């Protein structure tokens, strides 16, 4: 699908096949793929996580407050970057656990819980910074988003390692089998001995960690911590997973499918921008594509 779309548009979109543009597409898809991996876990388990954009923003802000060289809490200390990265990941762990525990213990709909988390902590990130970006981040931190090791982008190494582990857990581990069983039929899975609540909490924990890891990559690449970081990819995160074939009804999905879904949504966004379409038109087209994928998923689920 990705190759067909690319070949179809190459004659009509100037610069689409240029080295610089392809490199840009590749660079843009890496952090989105990291978030998409976490969303895939949640969707397979029969849930949905709308809070990932607020986790990205708050993680970025927390890291910036701790690490910036001007007036950061850890400015000038050798532990600034390690502790800053740890704090960013911790934000994802805490908010992921918050969503998962609230959904399971209070039997609340995932949509409402994660939407509330998104609104509250997204606003909290803006309040912490008074809507201001935080710059002057350490070079050793920004290297995580734009640096290289032996000619290989560090962001690629991080993404590849995370995707590999996520794939192995889904395909080769007991947790992976439990997650698919929970998504297919939670009540039947519980009767069969699956710790359904623990599995659901784990899926949201994975989503939170993936979102905060993506925040590290985004913040490092932009060299700026932003309280609105990630807002633009709200539609893309779920869309990439669904376009890749992960079911909105749970029980179906693979990391490899999400990779192609992320590549397609990134190519789509890139090509529409190269055509000079307004942001509103881009949103309309992407929304239509995602709706089509969701409809196909619904029809397929009813037939099975």
Strand order of the largest sheet: 1-2
Helix content: over 70%
- Compute the number of strand runs: 2
Please write the CATH class name: Mainly Alpha
Low-confidence runs of at least 5 consecutive residues: none
Tally of individual helices: 13
Sheet of most strands: 2 strands, antiparallel
What is the overall pLDDT average? 91
Alpha-beta content class: mainly alpha
Terminal-residue CA separation: 23 Å
Radius of gyration: 19 Å
For the record, the count of structural domains works out to 1
Q: What is the CATH architecture term?
A: Orthogonal Bundle
- What is the strand content? under 5%
- The backbone outline, from C-alpha atoms, is globular
CATH topology annotation: ABC transporter involved in vitamin B12 uptake, BtuC
SSE order in H/E notation? Answer: HHHHHHEEHHHHHHH
Describe the structure.
- By secondary structure, this protein is mainly alpha-helical.
- The protein has one domain (about 1-304): ABC transporter involved in vitamin B12 uptake, BtuC, CATH 1.10.3470.
- Helices cover about 75% and strands about 0% of the residues.
- The protein contains 13 helices and two strands.
- It has helices at about 1-10, 20-45, 50-65, 80-105, 110-130, 140-145, 155-170, 175-185, 185-190, 195-220, 235-245, 255-275, 280-304; strands at about 150, 150-155.
- It has a two-stranded antiparallel sheet with strand order 1-2.
- It is globular and about 55 Å long.
- The two termini are about 25 Å apart.
- The model has no long low-confidence stretch (mean pLDDT about 90).
